[in-house]
Amino acid sequence: MRTFVALLLPDSLRPAVKFLAGRLAKRGADFKWVEEENFHVTLRFLGEIPPADLSSAEEALKALASFPAFHAQLGEVGAFPSTRSPRVVWLGFRQGRSEMTEIAQALEKELTRRRFPPEEKAFHAHLTLGRQRSPHGLEGLASLLNERPAIEAPAFLLEKVVLYSSTLTPQGPVYRALKTVTLKEGNDGH
Q1: Does the pLDDT of residue 124 top 50, yes or no?
Q2: 2-182 under CATH 3.90.1140.10, yes or no
Q3: Under 8 Å between Cβ of 7 and 67
Q4: Which residues have a catalytic role annotated?
């Protein structure tokens, strides 16, 4: 089963993110843009795990319930490996990055305690907007990315961490929530 752990975004943010992704898509680059219902912040991609390991992943997730819910705010668009040569286009955060990093590190610690292979890449708080399918049409997208477009949206509360299964289909991935943990109330992240 292909799985990952992510922070659940509030539905109220999705239209603004979709609008920005649509603006990027109009530049004509050959990208697979993320569907509006699939916007999320990945804390850890687990990949293919056997069903027997699912309960261990759920236990690791439960350990995050002691973290307080926190406010975040979306920021500028960026790209991996760079805006001049984008393979993945993402949306960063003005606020909430340190809290996301802290939760991702705690999750990593819980997963490695349960014998999941360690993550090789450092965590980078972002929301993926699209992935390159081919290098066709990159010039227009790269020029817009170099303008550093940003999203103007109010801060929002992040309070749910979800273990998802991801089924790949020709139309794109289908995500299904397997386990949801709600972060503690009473802290706005400051």
Answers
A1: yes
A2: yes
A3: no
A4: 40, 126
